[in-house]
TrEMBL record:
GO molecular function terms attached to this record: oxidoreductase activity
Descriptive protein name: SDR family oxidoreductase
Alphabetical list of PANTHER family matching this protein: DEHYDROGENASES, SHORT CHAIN, ESTRADIOL 17-BETA-DEHYDROGENASE 8-RELATED
Family (UniProt): Belongs to the short-chain dehydrogenases/reductases (SDR) family.
Superkingdom of the organism of origin: Bacteria
Keywords, sorted A to Z: Oxidoreductase
């Protein structure tokens, strides 16, 4: 299949819905073969099935995958090798947010936030690099957040974990470059994106979804909330050979927030 990512073999975590599902679909549209993983295994399989329905058998697969579990990572990498024929694009998308400021955030929530957002990338890269080396050139794409660069008093766990993703991405990039692996590592930093997560946010604050979107848009210089493809298009760029000279960098997709 022709496309900007033709021949790429990609694993996308958190692919049951939202950004992860969008990343998987755009990669497949551009010619990649994709393994969709999520702790919601049925959801990951549903994403893969929708891609296969549109593009044909062999374009996508879906499995259950707890990104905090090193054994699950081994199984996911083995599945990528068996079903895709290797691996050269790793999209670490799975992530969570937790409530509470520095006085009210529970330590177990802090630990869980770091486990899902940061430990998952440690485990994933450590397990994936041997196979990615065999199928280089490759690209590691870590989904951070603008909250990893700009702090808020209401979400220290999320701020700190996403900042860790940003710096971990750079360390991985330098390691791969120093060892001439031909594998790049970069991070993407979105702001508000219209995904199912915002449905829950609206419900939690007893707001109509459209009202919430208007409130969020007022905080963004471009005055609109992003769509999943706004982020997925950057994933396609980083997965493709178009970005072969880009590593250890960050892409801010924040509608101008970080420029203020």
């Amino acid at each position: 299949m022709a496309g900007r990512c033709a021949g790429k073999l990609a694993l996308v975590t958190g692919a049951a819905q939202g950004l992860g599902a969008g990343h998987a679909r755009r990669l497949a549209e551009e010619g990649a073969r994709v393994l969709c993983t999520d702790i919601n295994g049925d959801g990951a399989q549903a994403t893969a099935a929708s891609i296969v329905e549109e593009m044909g058998a062999g374009h996508a697969y879906g499995i259950q995958h707890d990104v905090t579990n090193p054994d699950d990572w081994e199984r996911a990498i083995e599945t990528a090798d068996a079903e895709l024929g290797g691996l050269n694009v790793l999209v670490n998308n799975a992530g969570i947010g937790v409530a509470g400021n520095i006085e009210t955030c529970k330590f177990e929530d802090w630990q869980r936030c770091f486990s899902v957002n940061v430990d998952s990338i440690f485990h994933g890269c450590q397990k994936a690099l041997p196979l990615m080396r065999e199928h280089a050139p490759g690209s590691i794409i870590n989904i951070s957040s603008i909250a990893g660069l700009i702090a808020s008093d209401t979400m220290p766990a999320y701020n700190a974990s996403k900042a860790a993703v940003w710096m971990l991405s750079k360390s991985i990039a330098l390691h791969c470059a120093k060892n001439n692996m031909q594998i790049r590592s970069n991070s993407i930093h979105p702001t508000f994106v219209d995904t199912p997560i915002l449905d829950g946010t609206a419900k939690a604050h007893s707001l109509d979804k459209d009202v919430l979107l208007e409130k969020l848009a007022r905080q963004i210089p471009l005055k609109f909330v992003g769509e999943p493809n706004d982020i997925a298009n950057a994933v396609v760029y980083l997965a493709s050979d178009e970005s072969r000279f880009m590593t250890g960098a960050e892409i801010k997709l924040d509608g101008g927030i970080s420029a203020m």
